[in-house]
# Entry
Amino acid sequence: MSTQTAIDINAQAKPSPETILECRDLCYTFPNSKEVFTNLNLKTLRDELVAVVGQTGTGKSTLLRNLAYLIPPTSGKVFLEGKQIRRPSSRISLIHQSIATFPWMTALDNVRIGLTGKRITEQQAKQTAMDMLDLVGLKDVADSYPKEMSGGMRQRIAIARALAASPSVLLMDEPFVHLDELTANNLRQEIYSLVFNPETTLNSVVLVSHNLHEVVQLADRVYVMCDSPATIVDELKIDLPRPRTERNSKFLDYIDELMVDLKPKCQQA
# Structure
């Protein structure tokens, strides 16, 4: 294998067999010399959704772009399934805050564009895109345009496009923030079963969110980023059966812990 591939097979990490994505001592400094975060260490395990929370400006979105190597970290290393990555990999997909669909393309074409660069035939690309639309419940509107769809439907297209690339890791940056609460809540209730469906290649998900109810509803573990430059100041495991509901007193206990216990850490870090 060429040394120019996205994954450097000569730079082996030594994580546990279940570790999927990991960063070690990750640091990033903007070109204007402002240090965003320093010495960040986090990891995801197989079939795990990990959330990252923190105050505005702590660099959570920048962290996702570092993990995807869309922006190379200033220092530190990122490993995917035990192998160091040095440039963007099709095995890590990112869904942005904005609902990114191309208005001049049909739903099918919006998903199919995620397969650009794959060594597959046009028919294979079409079938894969259709399969992903079916997975997110939009097969019947494959020929419709984004302007004919709701915000929730357009976000499903973005999810389908990300999954079409057959990633191992999905990074989600505030994916529901521009949706109305009813639509967002409906999609949140489905997202876990969508992304960890046996028909996908996903092994883990990293979610950035300011919505603590959303975090407790979705995450298996939560990392808390605080201070400037930011660091990881806490890690919380969410041990609740699915589906999760606020009617469960433990659900509210986790909210309280994140709001009451972790906020002072951010102020004091």
